Amino acid sequence: MQIAFAAPLWLWSGKGAWHFITLPHDDSAIIRMAVPRRGWGSVRVRARIGETQWTTSIFPDTKNGAYLLPVKAEVRKAERLVVGEEIAVTVSLDL
């Protein structure tokens, strides 16, 4: 299963400097119903932004009902990403 979308990069306001992109609600609902989950409801994925591809997990955000894609510093630097910028993302689920 592959999902392509665009959404803004945002910085979590809690402890640490975690950066995320929120997956669309419709796609998150499909993932929640169709894909086996791991600890904390996470799902293994391959993510791609620009020329950078990496393996990670997406995590459910129970407050807004969507999954969150963490974007590590290495990816942000390689793709010159800025908080608030709309980012084109492709997420492939490891089924």
What features would you describe in this structure?
The protein is globular. The protein has a single domain, classed as AF2212/PG0164-like (Elongation Factor Tu (Ef-tu), domain 3, Beta Barrel), CATH 2.40.30. Helix content is 17%, strand content 46%. A 6-stranded antiparallel β-barrel has the order 1-2-5-4-3-6. The longest helix is centred in the N-terminal third of the chain and has 10 residues. By secondary structure, the protein is an alpha+beta fold.
Keywords:
6 strands; 6-stranded antiparallel barrel; alpha+beta; globular; 95 residues; single chain; 17% helix
Largest sheet: 6 strands, antiparallel, barrel
The CATH class turns out to be Mainly Beta
Total helical segments: 2
CATH architecture: Beta Barrel
pLDDT average, as an integer? 90
- How many extended strands? 6
Task: Lay out the secondary structure.
Layout lengths: L1 E10 L7 E4 L2 H10 L8 E7 L2 E10 L4 E5 L2 H6 L7 E8 L2
Antiparallel strand pairs: 1-2, 1-6, 2-5, 3-4, 3-6, 4-5
Concise summary:
It contains two helices and six strands, in the order ββαβββαβ.
